[in-house]
Structure of GntR family transcriptional regulator:
Amino acid sequence: MATPRRAGPAGGDRKLRYQQVQELVLTIMAERDLRPGDRLPSTTELADIADVSTISVRRALDELERAGRIKRHQGLGTFVAEPRIAADPTRPGELLQTLTDNQGRAPSMSTSLIAISVGLPSATIAAALGVDAGQPVWEIWRRRDIGVGTIADRILERAVLPLSRVPAIDREWLAGGQSLYRFLQERYGFTDEYTEQAFEVDSPSGWEAEQLELEPGEPMVRIRGVSFDASGQAFDCFEQCYRATKFTFYTAGQTRRRILGPSELCNWSVAPLGAP
């Protein structure tokens, strides 16, 4: 399908030239029904179609690449990118409720229970949970397998819960892929009233890379946080690991606490005592 030449900005048009090029690229993607991996017109071709400079085109492509809409490969060209999964970790509740695809739909997701054990928390985890370092905690590892159209990816998730507040865990419930937060709500009345979280781009351990199926040297996003119930007491320290190139994160607002500074994230470990 031929793309008509677009006129330059009129005097009354407040859009900047690079913004017009962004709209042009998105229009081309829609009109030609381009799919992930399909090639887009070159920088020179886009400049000719939009009647703007290549500088404006490069800025537009920079913005679109940052937004995850296109992917550029040196010497090969510009291509439609695989859509990303949008994650809003500030939403309370189950992980599935925080994810949407590029059309705003909730993705399909299955959960695999990796391990449940009891251990002793590091001093930083104990402080975040408001317990003594010698008090035992549950450590629960799960893997989330996500499928959204052409998107397929994984999230590695860990929950650390104090035995003083959560005396028992239903292993069969979790092994069946059921929600941990729903179990905590139904059994103990805990609701995720608000959370405090810290984000970092990190190099995965060998085990984390294996679980997420990352390529050598591929980074991941690590989110560490604490969940508080309506009374303001912490009941969960959690950690989630995502492939850095497949997710877009949205955050807003502030929590009522400030306990996760850089020093509090240096040791997020649990010394195992054994599997109950």
About this structure: Confidence is low (pLDDT under 50) at residues 6-13. The chain has two domains: 17-80, 85-274. Helices lie at 17-31, 43-50, 54-66, 123-129, 171-175, 180-188, 206-212.
